[in-house]
């Protein structure tokens, strides 16, 4: 379920000096380094969502993008999600990443993840040529002009000693290349943990990095999925796991101060119910405790799996990739953790977004309008880019203008057709500025619609489905590719059991 699961200006002599097999990209001008304290939740890159839009809606400036892996075992070419239709190029996420950077944030591309680490498609497991691995890392850095790469190493990859050694040797090559070009490139390792720190294979991975001269800037603990059949206070377990990691780092890096060691620590939570089940549930109260602890300790990175789960769409349910399994408002966890970036809770300049009216009832075929009001709440006015989401099938939403200066207004128009389905829908208008983002919601009720209702039988959690069977769920028809029980349509990813046949 969890898949966790710039101009090209380098001289060829500099590339040769570090032994890189360059892939058509050189030492791009240095990207802006990440803050020393950063909140960067994971973004599930296979969903078709826009990272820039979700970042704006959630008020999140930085994202960890999951995942990069090869399309098949033995390959040296990484793709987003191992999908050959999603190469490392500006055409894939380039526009979104530039938008995030222009808003003062950035992304951290993550190599590996659970699927790659169990199928031999994590690039250092798949590719036996260290220079090609290094060239792949470099291509991601220069294509997206980013300053940190993440290595998600777990399950089988964590015991692949040859792959571990290749990866660390490649990291060393890239770091030498970056230094020669005058740019800063950080590397984080995302690793599973016990409640008291890394297991032996995680410690061995870090020792190998030290022996290869590969600098590890952050060790990011996955503080969830303990699978030990014990009761858990997830906030308390985060603290003990991180203390265990601190002790390990102190042994590996004896010359670092306590503050420097804590600033090598990262923590990734799984919000709500994790894969083990309700016994391992991170509540909003837990999240606030973790936030306060993270600020006090001065850790480097705070994250969670995953941005698309930060909503209460399946309270009382099991772990899923599109909801947290607990009762919450959309973006509650993001709002708790977002102030961690930069260590400030109040932006110098800020604004608000409101809708008037905030609801309307229309007959299918009619339209409704509302005024989008923005206001300066702190400091000076800033440019606010407006976007709208949530319009149902048979309806379209538009904003005029799509950008205002805080204090200005825009008009939201919702137009429906006779093909709309009767019901009440939540439409969200989001304003994004340099200080972050704010949203307001609009309740649109449609009557008299004659759109098609789903005719396939609704998906049932406790029913066994076999290949070819169809169900309806969340307004879409789905077809099972093989035997399945309990896997919710829409949560299994493009390679999962359910094929999306489209809206009903």
SSE inventory with pairings:
Blueprint: H1 12-17, E1 38-39, E2 42-44, H2 51-58, E3 62-70, E4 78-80, H3 94-102, E5 106-112, H4 114-119, H5 123-126, H6 130-144, E6 148-152, H7 155-158, H8 161-181, E7 186-192, H9 200-211, E8 218-222, H10 234-252, H11 258-262, E9 265-270, E10 272-274, E11 277-282, H12 284-297, E12 301-305, H13 332-337, E13 350-356, E14 359-363, E15 367-378, E16 383-389, E17 395-400, E18 403-405, E19 409-416, E20 423-433, E21 436-447, E22 464-465, E23 470-473, E24 476-480, E25 484-485, E26 498-503
Parallel strand pairs: 1-12, 2-3, 3-5, 5-6, 6-7, 7-8, 8-9, 9-12, 14-21
Antiparallel strand pairs: 3-4, 10-11, 13-15, 15-19, 16-18, 16-20, 17-19, 20-21, 22-25, 23-24, 24-26
Helix pairs in contact: 2-3, 6-8, 10-12
Characteristics of this structure?
chitinase; 26 strands; 10-stranded mixed beta sheet; Seminal Fluid Protein  PDC-109 (Domain B); disordered N terminus; single chain; TIM Barrel; Immunoglobulin-like; 504 residues; alpha/beta; hydrolase; glycosidase
Structure summary:
With 504 residues, the protein is α/β, with parallel strands linked by helices. The chain is built from 13 helices and 26 strands. The protein has helices at 12-17, 51-58, 94-102, 114-119, 123-126, 130-144, 155-158, 161-181, 200-211, 234-252, 258-262, 284-297, 332-337; strands at 38-39, 42-44, 62-70, 78-80, 106-112, 148-152, 186-192, 218-222, 265-270, 272-274, 277-282, 301-305, 350-356, 359-363, 367-378, 383-389, 395-400, 403-405, 409-416, 423-433, 436-447, 464-465, 470-473, 476-480, 484-485, 498-503.
């Amino acid at each position: 379920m969890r898949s966790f699961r710039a101009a090209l200006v380098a001289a060829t002599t500099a590339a040769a000096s570090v032994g890189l097999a360059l892939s058509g990209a050189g030492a791009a001008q240095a990207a802006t380094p990440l803050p020393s304290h950063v909140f960067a939740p994971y973004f599930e890159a296979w969903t078709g969502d826009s990272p820039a839009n979700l970042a704006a809606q959630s008020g999140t400036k930085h994202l960890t993008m999951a995942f990069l892996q090869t399309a098949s075992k033995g390959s040296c070419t990484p793709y987003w999600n191992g999908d050959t239709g999603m190469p490392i190029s500006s055409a894939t996420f380039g526009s979104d990443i530039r938008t995030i950077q222009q808003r003062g944030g950035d992304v951290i591309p993550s190599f590996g993840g659970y699927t790659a680490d169990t199928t031999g498609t994590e690039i250092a497991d798949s590719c036996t040529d260290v220079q090609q691995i290094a060239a792949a890392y470099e291509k991601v850095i220069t294509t997206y002009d980013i300053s940190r790469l993440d290595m998600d190493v777990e399950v089988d990859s964590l015991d692949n000693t040859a792959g571990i050694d290749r990866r660390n040797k490649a990291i060393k090559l890239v770091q030498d290349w970056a230094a020669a070009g005058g740019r800063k490139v950080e590397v984080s390792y995302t690793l599973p943990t016990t409640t008291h720190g890394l297991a032996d294979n995680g410690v061995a991975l870090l020792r190998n990095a030290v022996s290869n001269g590969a600098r590890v800037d952050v060790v990011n603990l996955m503080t969830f999925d303990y699978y030990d059949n014990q009761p858990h206070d997830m906030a308390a377990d985060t603290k003990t796991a991180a203390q265990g990691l601190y002790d390990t780092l102190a042994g590996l890096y004896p010359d670092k101060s306590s503050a420097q060691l804590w600033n090598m620590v990262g923590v990734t939570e799984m919000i709500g119910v994790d894969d083990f089940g309700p016994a391992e549930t991170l509540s909003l109260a837990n999240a606030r405790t973790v936030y306060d602890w993270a600020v006090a300790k001065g850790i480097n990175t705070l994250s969670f799996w995953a941005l698309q789960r930060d909503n209460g769409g399946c309270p009382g349910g099991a772990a899923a990739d599109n909801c947290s399994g607990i009762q919450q408002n959309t973006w509650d966890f993001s709002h708790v953790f977002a102030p961690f970036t930069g260590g400030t809770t109040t932006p110098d300049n800020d604004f608000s977004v409101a809708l008037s009216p905030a609801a309307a009832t229309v007959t299918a075929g009619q339209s409704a309008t509302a005024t989008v009001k923005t206001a300066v709440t702190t400091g000076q006015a800033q440019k606010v880019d407006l976007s709208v989401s949530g319009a149902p099938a048979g309806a379209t939403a538009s904003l005029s203008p799509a950008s205002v200066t805080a204090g200005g207004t825009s008009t939201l128009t919702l137009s429906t057709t006779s093909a709309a389905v009767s019901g009440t829908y939540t439409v969200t208008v989001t304003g994004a500025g340099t200080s972050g983002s704010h949203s307001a919601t609009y309740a649109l009720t449609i009557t008299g619609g004659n759109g098609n209702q789903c005719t396939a039988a609704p998906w049932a959690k406790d029913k066994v489905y076999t290949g070819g069977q169809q169900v309806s769920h969340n307004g879409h028809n789905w077809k099972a590719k093989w035997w399945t029980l309990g896997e919710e349509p829409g949560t299994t990813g493009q390679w999962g059991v359910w094929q999306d046949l489209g809206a009903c």
